[in-house]
Design brief:
Blueprint lengths: L5 H4 L5 H8 L5 E2 L11 H12 L13 H15 L8 E4 L1 H13 L5 E6 L3 H9 L3 E6 L8 H7 L4 E7 L11 H14 L2 E5 L23 E6 L12 E4 L2 H14 L5 H12 L3 H24 L11 E2 L7 H7 L2 E2 L1 E2 L11 E4 L4 H18 L1
Parallel strand pairs: 1-10, 3-4, 3-5, 5-6, 6-7
Antiparallel strand pairs: 2-8, 7-8, 9-12, 11-12
């Protein structure tokens, strides 16, 4: 029998999925990382119209439709004050594929990829799949990533470092000063800064800034998606943008692995990006209210939790046995170690549920806390 590749053998099924499978059918799910709002109606209708008109029956350009890439370019001008050429954009099957092709195009066997710990589970796995060596770095007490820590971790074997703001699983938002430093580090050390900005619009305190704003050497690549901002996780539509030579290499990976993003999803994404943004504002306001309810409730329980500035996650410190006890009592949360060694002693709580459900979950978590103390 042919052996399995060493790259795949280094990757296991996500600990998040293992938690879901262990939970009961009636459990309150505070583990799933997706909004609980509908995709905006105008985005849905754009896909329907494209399908009915026969516009979604064939391959699009490998990079995506010109109209979508122009919409993405306009989005970056509007939201980030960036001049992005539509030719330097690839529409992908969600932000996950964008991360994958970026790492595949830039990481050679054994080269290091630096990323936050705790951090999004895909960073470690996709580094292994690219043949690279994961190099997680600890976070500050406020759960942001310190540029100085990243710079200290860089060696002659470093290919890239990942920045994620707002962050999964912590909800932390990096400052403009941090982003300026990340861009400087990328340029001075001539390594790739891969900026995961999927939660860009979900910010409560401070503001989202991209290291691409400060990039003087073409060493920043930005990954984004419609998944979170427009509640389009199931549509699988993301994108990646960067310098022309980097896009050309990423396109080589994308065209053989994916050919093009789903055509109906591309039409929906174009409408989401160019249409009314009210649904985004309404969703963010709801998340902020829930964030406040959750943080206050965790404090009442006795759990210490940095107030998340964005995304829809919180990461409190929890006692041993708390996560299992909460799951047994019917509230799904994810153990912090699923996101790296730095997550040990914490839990990730995702709060895209209505306030009443969140309050019910907090009562149960309070019971779980008292049971393990």
């Amino acid at each position: 029998m042919t052996d399995f590749s060493r790259r795949v053998e280094r990757v296991s099924i996500s600990g998040i999925r293992e938690v879901f499978e262990a939970a009961g059918e009636d459990a309150i799910n505070l583990g799933l990382g997706q909004p609980d709002f509908p995709t905006p109606e105008h985005a849905r209708q754009a896909a329907v119209d494209a399908i009915e008109a026969g516009k979604a029956d064939a391959y699009t350009s490998n990079k995506g439709t010109r109209e979508l890439r122009e919409a993405i370019s306009e989005k970056h001008a509007r939201d980030n004050d960036l001049d992005v050429d539509p030719e330097d954009v690839i529409a992908t099957a969600g932000g996950s594929e964008a991360l994958h092709i970026a790492l595949e195009a830039h990481v050679d066997e054994g080269e290091e990829v630096i990323f936050p710990d705790p951090g999004f589970v895909s960073y470690d796995a996709l580094t292994h799949l690219a043949g690279g060596t994961p190099k997680p770095v600890e976070l500050r007490d406020d759960l942001t990533m310190d540029p100085a820590t990243v710079e200290e971790a860089i060696t002659e074997d470093t290919a890239a470092f990942v920045v994620n703001s707002p962050a999964n699983p912590t909800g932390a938002v990096q400052s403009a000063e941090d982003m300026r430093e990340f861009a400087r580090i990328a340029n001075e050390h001539d390594v790739l800064c891969l900026s995961d900005e999927v939660y860009e619009h979900i910010v409560f305190d401070g503001e989202h800034r991209s290291p691409a704003e400060f990039d003087a050497g073409g060493n920043v690549v930005v990954v984004n998606a419609c998944s979170k901002a427009y509640s389009m996780t199931g549509w699988r539509l993301g994108w990646v943008t960067g310098a022309t030579d980097r896009i050309e290499r990423m396109l080589r990976v994308h065209q053989y692995g994916q050919a093009c993003a789903s055509a109906p999803a591309q039409y929906a994404a174009e409408a989401a990006l160019t249409g009314p943004q009210d649904p985004v504002d309404e969703m963010v306001a709801a998340f902020e209210e829930r964030r406040d309810v959750l943080v206050e409730g965790l404090a009442d329980i006795g759990l210490d939790c940095p107030t998340p500035s964005g995304a829809f996650y919180a990461m409190p410190e929890v006692p041993e046995g708390f996560v299992d006890e909460a799951i047994d009592r019917g509230v799904v949360i994810v153990p912090g170690e699923a996101f790296g060694e730095g997550g040990a002693g914490h839990a990730r709580i995702s709060y895209p549920v209505d306030v009443e459900t969140l309050k019910e979950a907090l009562e149960i978590m309070g019971e779980a806390y008292r049971a393990v103390r």
